[in-house]
C-alpha cells in the first residue's frame, strides 16, 4: 500500500472503478507541475470522464496497464474522495463515525453498525481514532462471538 492517492485513466468512462475527479471537488494537487504535465501528456483534463482517483488503501485495484500518477492529498481531500466513492448509506455512517470523535456515547453500537454496513475495520479505526483491537473486539461481540479478551474494552 502507498501513502499517496492515484490519478489514473480508464478506457471506458462507464467503468465504476475510482471517483471522477469532478466528483471529489477542488484538489490542490491538480495545480502541481507534475500532475499538469501528466494530464497534458495524455491529452486529458482533470474534468475528463476517464480520469479517476483512488485513495491510498484502494490503489491496488488499479489495473496494471493503466496510466497512473501518485498524488498527495490533504486529510480533508482524502475525506472528500472517500465520500465520493461511498454509496449514500455508507457515507451517512462514515459521517457518524467522524462525529464520534467528539463524543463517546453509544460507541459499541456505532462500531457494530459500521461493520454491518460494510465499512472496513481499518477505515473505522481511521475515522474514530479507536484502537484496532477495540474495533475487532466490539465487532466480534456484535456478531455474537466472544472477543479475544473476553471482556468489553471501553
UniProtKB/TrEMBL annotation:
InterPro entries: DUF6003. The lineage of its organism: Bacteria, Bacillati, Actinomycetota, Actinomycetes, Kitasatosporales. This is DUF6003 family protein. It holds the Pfam family DUF6003. It comes from the Bacteria.
Amino acid at each position: 500500500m502507498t501513502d499517496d492517492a492515484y490519478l489514473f485513466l480508464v478506457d471506458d468512462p462507464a467503468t465504476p472503478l475510482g471517483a471522477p475527479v469532478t466528483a471529489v471537488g477542488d484538489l490542490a494537487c491538480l495545480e502541481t507541475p507534475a500532475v499538469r504535465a501528466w494530464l497534458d501528456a495524455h491529452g486529458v483534463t482533470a474534468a475528463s470522464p476517464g480520469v479517476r482517483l483512488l485513495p491510498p488503501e484502494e490503489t491496488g485495484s488499479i489495473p496494471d496497464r493503466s496510466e497512473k500518477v501518485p498524488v498527495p492529498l490533504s486529510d480533508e481531500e482524502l475525506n472528500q474522495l472517500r465520500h465520493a466513492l461511498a454509496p449514500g448509506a455508507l457515507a451517512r455512517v462514515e459521517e457518524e463515525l467522524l462525529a464520534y470523535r467528539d463524543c463517546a456515547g453509544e460507541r459499541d453500537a456505532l462500531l457494530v453498525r459500521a461493520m454491518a454496513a460494510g465499512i472496513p475495520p481499518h477505515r473505522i479505526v481511521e475515522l474514530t481514532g479507536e484502537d484496532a483491537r477495540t474495533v475487532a473486539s466490539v465487532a466480534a461481540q456484535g456478531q455474537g462471538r466472544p472477543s479475544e479478551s473476553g471482556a468489553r474494552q471501553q
